[in-house]
Predict the 3D structure of the following.
Amino acid sequence: MEPKFQVQLKIRKPVAQVFEAVVNPAKLSGYFVKTSSGPLAAGTTVKWSFAEAPGEFDVITREVIPNERIVFEWPADDSYNTRVEMRFVPLDASNTMVKISESGWKPDEKGIKASYDNAGGWMHMMLCLKGYLEYGINLREGGAL
């Protein structure tokens, strides 16, 4: 069994605004990462840091289709990367469905646990995105261990 998942959440904002909140490092740091070294653009590698995790993570951006899709790879551990795909589906002029899937973990106990942890992490990210865009608040602020 290949460890993989998909989570999704409706954001009550237009697709362009939701997409921009993910690719723009200034906005991304308003609800998700502590720092981002640059925008997500196809063929680039940016560094993300998180308040609750030591160090920086290389995010290797493979594909960016504005207002539709972002695909990147990032470290599962020191030996391999997983693949993250974000899809932005406009439901109407004012609402967007965000779907995030991640795959590529090793099919062992450690990989399965990591996939479950990340499924929760991505759902948390989308709830923070929702709070940031719909209510102007940072749900992660003060939440680090």
Notes: The radius of gyration is 15 Å. The beta strands are 4-11, 35-36, 45-50, 53-65, 69-75, 81-92, 95-103. The longest helix spans residues 109-135.
